[in-house]
Amino acid sequence: MDNGVPSGPRLPGLVQALLTLSAPAVVFPAAARRYGVPFTLELMPKGRTVVAVADPADIKDVFAGSPSVFHAGKGNELLRPLLGDDSLLLQDGDAHARARRLLAPAFGRREIAGYRTLVEEVTAEQLSRWPRSGRVRAHVLLNELTLEVILRVVFGVTDSERLDRMRPVVARTVDAGPVMMIGLAIPALRRLWPWTKEIRDLASIHVFLDEQIDSARRDPALADRRDLLALLVRASADDAQGLTDEELRDQLMTLLAAGHETTATAMAWSMLELARHPHIQDRCAAEIARGEQTDYLDAVLKESLRLHPVVPLVMRELQEPATVGGRTYPRGTTISPSIILAHRAPAAYPAPKDFDPERFLGDVPTPTTWLPFGGGARRCIGASFAMMEGEVILRQVLERYRLDRVGSGREWPRARNVTLYPWRRARLDLRPR
């Protein structure tokens, strides 16, 4: 049994952090080729040792490990200034278990089926505003669409004036790049521009969320509401350990910041691939037109998330020594299953650079080879909602449009906050069907 950490780059930690956040699709494959897997990165905060793993057996060790030892909240520390101390992504131990227990009913199968109608209505309304034809940046349009879904489905917001006020603030806030994210974690920089602007925007969002929570708690028709906020407020009121207003605000901030951006990005990558592969697009459109179960469309979504993971890695900080893949790592080490490397492993995915939805027809992907939503006890609580929303959006897009590529149709992954979106915002030519 090996002890200690494997080798890795020797660049300064700040440089490694900037490179890893800015271009993980380059850094991880390059480091894997140079040092093998696992390898070690030294990242922010100062002194953080991150060991990247990708072998399914290693990933299983991490996801099956005790949540009391493998802390995800500590691993996501960079997100604290954006999401708040009580975000589900930053909690560990009993606090995380309590919050997840209170949040889970709002993401149950019956509740998601209930959200579907509203998602369909919002999607149809938003697509009616898209150009009938011509060149677009699909990622921009999709961000507007999924933000509307979050505001309406999650918060039940219908006040047009309030929606108009919040849209640009939320859009600016979630557009934070790697330098902004690192700077927010450094107190001295938080007093300087442009970080002061980000902090003001965050404060505006907090006021908005506090207003929504207060309004929901006082709403005499709360029992009849089906939006996610209403479900959470009712659950908190019915539970002696219910979420406080501050805790609820941080959970809603997480849904707001992560929920719409990730789905919009996943849909942008999917549309780019459909434009690059007309025969796959035609098969999806034919399946939809026949009114069949959208098994192939579901496979397209899964393959897109494989080839273009929105989040490139997950983090687990060890609270005591633990063994992963036969190597024992010391307390304080962060073990990071690399989604990028796992999704491009030839052993799991022959010709891994090819876009091939057939991989997912009839097979359930294993949680150690397909992990766009993380895994284990910390798997994304909104994964089923995201897949439902993605299917609704792609279905309606393909009912209205034929998607044609611009140039080669290829776009490089670019980082903002902790997600990877198409560099040119998914340029496409739309043609009416």
From TrEMBL:
<comment type="similarity">
    <text>Belongs to the cytochrome P450 family.</text>
</comment>
<dbReference type="InterPro" id="IPR017972">
    <property type="entry name" value="Cyt_P450_CS"/>
</dbReference>
<keyword id="KW-0349">Heme</keyword>
<dbReference type="GO" id="GO:0016705">
    <property type="term" value="F:oxidoreductase activity, acting on paired donors, with incorporation or reduction of molecular oxygen"/>
</dbReference>
<dbReference type="Pfam" id="PF00067">
    <property type="entry name" value="p450"/>
</dbReference>
<dbReference type="GO" id="GO:0020037">
    <property type="term" value="F:heme binding"/>
</dbReference>
<keyword id="KW-0479">Metal-binding</keyword>
<dbReference type="InterPro" id="IPR050196">
    <property type="entry name" value="Cytochrome_P450_Monoox"/>
</dbReference>
<feature type="binding site" description="axial binding residue">
    <location>
        <position position="380"/>
    </location>
    <ligand>
        <name>heme</name>
    </ligand>
</feature>
<dbReference type="InterPro" id="IPR001128">
    <property type="entry name" value="Cyt_P450"/>
</dbReference>
<protein>
    <submittedName>
        <fullName>Cytochrome P450</fullName>
    </submittedName>
</protein>
<dbReference type="InterPro" id="IPR036396">
    <property type="entry name" value="Cyt_P450_sf"/>
</dbReference>
<dbReference type="GO" id="GO:0005506">
    <property type="term" value="F:iron ion binding"/>
</dbReference>
<keyword id="KW-0408">Iron</keyword>
<keyword id="KW-0560">Oxidoreductase</keyword>
<dbReference type="GO" id="GO:0004497">
    <property type="term" value="F:monooxygenase activity"/>
</dbReference>
<keyword id="KW-0503">Monooxygenase</keyword>
<dbReference type="InterPro" id="IPR002401">
    <property type="entry name" value="Cyt_P450_E_grp-I"/>
</dbReference>
